[in-house]
């Protein structure tokens, strides 16, 4: 079998190389010879606010639509009123080793009321009914990442038809263009629909409007009489030639030469209030967007879109070798990868797709960050509500942002963090009688910062700290002092104040976080029962170390708050050390050296210090070794079984500078956790794995967490030849690299801000004194 696979692989590669000259490279295409048979095969477009999944069907095209803020539920105070009163008792029980009792009491007095929130929802579907079509030839369905346009081409009776779909950020709407090479040949019926809570009507013979208000089941999450968020969607079709009419709430297009369809939507959500707001008029918003877009000529719609889209997307190029398979449909490439055919360029495509997905789900005109599904969701009750999980998932979404030259995508995240300070302060005070702001492991768009789902899922009191890491990283990558002073520092220090006032003394005199847990993992108590709740899990200690050091540095850069900085230093000195388990030589996950209930658990929170933070590294050799063992043990026991978990492992191995292992897990991510449209499969679809995988590929090529820019720190044999342009390093540097036989041959360093730049090319160390706006070429000879 193995020999067969090898022969097959060599054969395929030879055929491909021969083919290459004849074909235009489709390196940045996801493409297929058949339409999507289900949602997980459809292709996404998005402008940060609106999303659409295009199915590519010839007869009845389905385009599933999303608007980022269409959420069920509403703002209510879910903080358990008994929390502060029972906190001390719970903490004492934990310190005394009575975890089960502490757990029961926490369920009663700490868990949010109600402990659940509602889901992000689909906006609905646009169906384009072209009627019965026979004899379809030369069908092709593709997403070009360079343009952000999904195109469907086919021929019927020698007439060529083309459909193009893109999400325009400048015009704030989805655009669909129907063309053909024969006059008067386009006929179709347009139908906008939503299964519930909406009505659709036709206006002026060329528009469809949908308006609605979400209803809710009868409980405390109900709005006025069961009615919650209001929303509105508007479609306008313009045809050239033929005619367009309205009938039964559909539009009928006959004998047109070409058609342009514009769709937009809005809700009455108000981001700064974290609630819907009746003064927001979603209908007026839609009308304004459509009235502006509808007078822009079709070609300019495309041009404006491309200018804006490419200004972000084109910054980075990646080439991972000479094996060229882009003339094979993407699903077939994925299939052959599963059979063992090497396809490094599919990894490059996956990387660029991750960048595409991030900018498509998190950029202006969008205001909300990318959720568990980015912005794409067809459900009314999505898996995990398509929410914001803040114990790894939301953070992972933004791992590629800085290094992959998409710093702008963090704006929605940072505004989100900023806005959550308000409810976060209330939770800090009401639940822990503490200063500052905080949040737990998951939230909706209505500012719920209490413990959701269950004590064993939700007790992650330092989730805001983890989010704040991204503010600091943005500063490190940009050296933007205004951002640090005006945005990052106030949010960070307020989160640090929460930590300081939340900490208590444990029985050994160390400062402790209690109650807390190592996200979602359980341990065995001496009596054999399983439990999650404890105090000072390794992740908390690592987070505080990482974060307080960042706050101290930020304060000293801004020359402010000396006293506060001293107090942070003093807190750091009183933390327990990161320990190594006597049982396995791994990083000890909990304050006691407990046995794990699930040694192959998907979360590897005690390696937070290795990645995304940088407190376990080669300067801490014992912990570095223990981190390796931790990873090996998780993997021996089945770890990495969800997409995001696998993606985290890639980043860990990149930081451990083990390119072969990192590569093995990219392969596994693609082979086991990737759907035909290259969406990450948790399962089901969850977008964090795409983003974590993208970041992992970047980390294998470039790292800069240790004051030195490490070039190709974890390059696997399979990427022996390649080049990359436009990756970012801390300090405000943009890096291009070329390599052969696994060795860097040339690098270009562009310095945005000037200043010292230390490089490790893999074979030599170089120190550059750079000037802002200049570029430096390093040849590795
Ligand atoms: C965390 C993970 C799950 C899932 C959920 C959305 O709770 O443990 O695997 O990704 O987030």
Descriptive report:
With 781 residues, the protein is α+β, with helices and mostly antiparallel strands. The strands form 8 sheets. The chain has a 9-stranded antiparallel sheet. Strands 2-3-4-5-10-15-14 form a 7-stranded antiparallel sheet. Strands 19-29-30-31-34 form a 5-stranded antiparallel sheet, covered by helices on one side. A hairpin with a 2-residue loop joins strand 7 (149-156) and strand 8. The longest helix is centred in the middle third of the chain and has 22 residues, at 481-502. It is globular. 53% of the residues are buried. Bound molecules: alpha-L-fucopyranose. Alpha-L-fucopyranose binds at residues 372, 384, 389, 393, 520, 602-603, 642, 644, 682, 686. Alpha-L-fucopyranose is lined by residues 372, 384, 389, 393, 520, 602-603, 642, 644, 682, 686.
How far apart lie the N and C ends?
A: 44 Å
Q: Average the pLDDT over all residues and give the rounded result.
A: 95
Strand order of the largest sheet: 1-6-7-8-9-16-13-12-11
Count the helices. How many?
Answer: 20
Structural class: alpha+beta
Let me know the number of strands: 34
Biggest β-sheet description: 9 strands, antiparallel
The general outline is globular
Strand fraction: 15-25%
> What is the helical fraction, as a range of percent?
25-40%
Question: What Rg is obtained from the alpha carbons, in whole angstroms?
Answer: 27 Å
Provide the low-confidence segments as ranges: 1-23
Question: Which small-molecule ligands are present, each listed once?
Answer: alpha-L-fucopyranose
